[in-house]
Give the backbone structure.
Amino acid sequence: MPRVAFTPNLQRHVACPPRDVEGATVREALDAVFAGNPKARGYVLEDDGALRKHMNVFVDGRPVRDRVTLGDAVSPGGEIYVMQALSGG
Amino acid sequence: MSGTRGERFHVGTRKGIFTVAKVGGAWQVVEAGHVGDNVPIVMHDPRDDTLYAALDHGHFGGKLHRRPAGGGDWEEIGVPTYPDLPEGVEEDTDASGRVIPWTLKLVWSLVPGLDDQPGRLWCGTLPGGLFRSDDRGDTWELVRGLWDHPDRKEWMGGGADWPGVHSIAVHPTDGDRLTVGVSCGGIWVTEDGGASWACRADGMRAEFMPPDRAGDPRIQDPHCLVQCVGAPDRFWVQHHNAIYRSVDDCASWQEVEGEPTHFGFAVSVHPEDPETAWFVPAIKDEHRVPQDAHLVVSRTRDGGETFDVLRNGLPQEHAYDLVLRHAMDLHGDGRCLAFGSTTGNVFVSEDQGDSWTCVSTHLPPVYCVRWEGRASAG
């Protein structure tokens, strides 16, 4: 199962422990996490489900390219990191 | 030309340029210019006593202005302009697929060349550009060696939506050797005037990246980089996650434990003594205010082994000043130090920070402080 981990900076606002979840894409994996932690969703995603402008998601160390539908593929042993972009100040 | 001691400095703010000088024994604002305009950077060129200022007009874009020696009128000069995209390329994107516009978004840094390079200026911009002028800013040319480097695609925005070149250090005896700091793109070095570049940020770490990318030199966020004029193989960096020093011409970087915190933006180094440097620490990185609301400057005299926390004359209760990366400057005399804050406070010291005089508590938010005079009294 892919593992999803969140930036420590987010923990100040909402607890987001790392989770191992089912999912073949970033969207599926994040949906699985947010199903059990709905408050966290609004800190990471816009209302329409796109990644917030000043958030970054990495899959196995590489930034995702699809920031809107989050369709980047994730392997079964993949690592997803949800980080705070430094852009935006 | 100013004397060997700091006499006058310029403060670039959200709402104009304010000149500070010592008059009748008291430091005071003696002149205001471009009032109402956003001034991200000011630069005094000691070679011909010319003053330069970048203005960010928002709706109307970034511009550059120049004022001759003696305080004549400001004139608008050329501004860095990005070239057209290569034939057949519809858009330039970074590693995340974000579009990188080939157009000037901000003039972020400005430094003069050496005495044997009359008219040469270097300018750092957003997005991620370094430009060169050989005619005192009338015309500018993008340094393609850095812009075309494939690793530029790995850079990210730091404090802005696009990466930017904020620090440019020209080697004091070889004007073709430049060291530049990029947020977030690491430290880049050229030894051939900009034709070829190497990233030299080994040893730095980025907590804002996944663990396996934290040591990637190409995504580091050096907030500010300075080079010791008298010992040009020695550098200091205030980084997003730590203070770093290099004693080997950026081949490696060693982390230094700052006091009272390791976060901040500004750094100054003594022009002759590479062991002596100053910082303005703040609580990291989501807070960005002084620790315990006490505004302090920290100074090391031993290469970062120990720090003096300097507070004499600085506000010690309910102070929430943040000092941005260009907002502290040390005069070439090695003694006069000045800084300004986002709260609009400006302070000056004539004794290396041991004591401070408040110049103003009500200027607009300060982006930049620059002394007149040479980088070194020598």
